[in-house]
Each structure stands twice: as C-alpha cells, then as structure tokens.
Design goal:
Mean pLDDT: 85
Shape: elongated
Low-confidence stretches: none
Strand content: under 5%
Radius of gyration: 21 Å
Largest sheet: none
Structural class: mainly alpha
Number of domains: 1
Helix content: 55-70%
Length: 118
C-alpha cells in the first residue's frame, strides 16, 4: 500500500495558522470574560446592594469597567471569527445589563496622556 503525500500551498498553511490563532485568542478572551464576571458576581454576593460606602461603590464600578472591557474584547474577537450575534454571548455568559451597557466605553484616562515636563 502506497502512501500519498499531500502538499498544501503556503497560503493555505498560513490561513490555517491564522485560523488557529483566532480560535486560541477567542478561548483566552472567553476565559478572561468568565473570570471578570465571576469576580463581579463574587463581589455582589459578598456585599448587599444597600451598602453605599464610597469604597464599595468605587470597587464595584471598577469591576464593572473591567468586565465591560473583557466583554468588548471577546465580542470583537468573535466578530473577527465570523460570529456576529451578540445575544448568545449575553445569555450564555449571564452578562449583567450594567456590563453590556458599558461595553466599548473607555474611561477618561484612556489612553494615558504623556505630559511633558516644563
């Protein structure tokens, strides 16, 4: 029995590498989204909504901002992979409305401004 070697065009091999990297990045970003949503859920479970200490509100706002950035990165990577429907992400990952509403919003200090010394 003879074995045939199949030769692939260099462009096909490169396209396969790109696809593998896209999928790998999607997995990493999905895990990062899960971690940020879990951190927010853990914070909410440990603190009641009635607690209005300034530090608690600031920490929760920071967690929401991090989760919204993680969601944004994940959605952009999904779109790069050809997956366009956001509804499934929001449902499957149980994304709070506060997080999805801030998706893509950049904090005022972003990008950091370099100031020259006088």
């Amino acid at each position: 029995m003879t074995r045939f070697k199949t030769r692939h065009a260099p462009a096909d091999l490169l396209a396969d590498e790109f696809l593998q990297e896209k999928v790998s990045a999607l997995g990493r970003l999905g895990r990062a989204l899960e971690a940020s949503l879990a951190a927010l859920a853990a914070f909410d479970a440990g603190h009641s909504q009635a607690s209005s200490a300034a530090e608690c509100r600031q920490l929760r706002a920071s967690l929401i901002a991090k989760a919204s950035i993680a969601l944004w990165h994940f959605v952009v990577q999904r779109e790069a992979c050809g997956l366009r429907d956001l509804r499934h992400v929001l449902l499957d990952y149980h994304v709070p409305h506060e997080v999805s509403a801030r998706m893509g919003a950049i904090a005022e200090e972003w990008p950091p401004v370099r100031r020259r010394k006088p």
